[in-house]
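FAQ

Q: What does a record look like?
A: Structure on top, sequence underneath. For example:
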């Protein structure tokens, strides 16, 4: 549960990294809104697997965290770190303006 991505997900509906590594590795990622956290744990297994099957290998959930699918552990950790650093930079740029 990367803190910067969770914080960024509360402010926006999509995540588009503007830093070099984020721009090269990711396009615009839609942030999934679970809407009701009261029954999220009962709905999560079905909704997360459906999203990962149909959309792509990554899912950012508003106020909750990230799910990512990869067969390579190094790639998985690298991409999560790139997303987290991109979110830190975007949050910092919002605080400056």
């Amino acid at each position: 549960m990367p803190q910067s991505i969770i914080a960024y997900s509360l402010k926006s509906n999509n995540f588009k990294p503007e830093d070099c590594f984020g721009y090269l590795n990711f396009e615009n990622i839609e942030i999934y809104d679970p809407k009701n956290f009261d029954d999220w744990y009962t709905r999560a297994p079905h909704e997360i697997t459906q999203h990962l099957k149909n959309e792509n290998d990554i899912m950012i959930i508003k106020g909750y965290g990230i799910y990512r699918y990869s067969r390579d552990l190094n790639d998985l950790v690298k991409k999560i770190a790139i997303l987290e650093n991109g979110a830190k930079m975007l949050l910092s740029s919002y605080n400056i303006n």
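Q: Is there anything notable about this one?
A: The helical segments are 3-11, 20-25, 40-54, 73-96.
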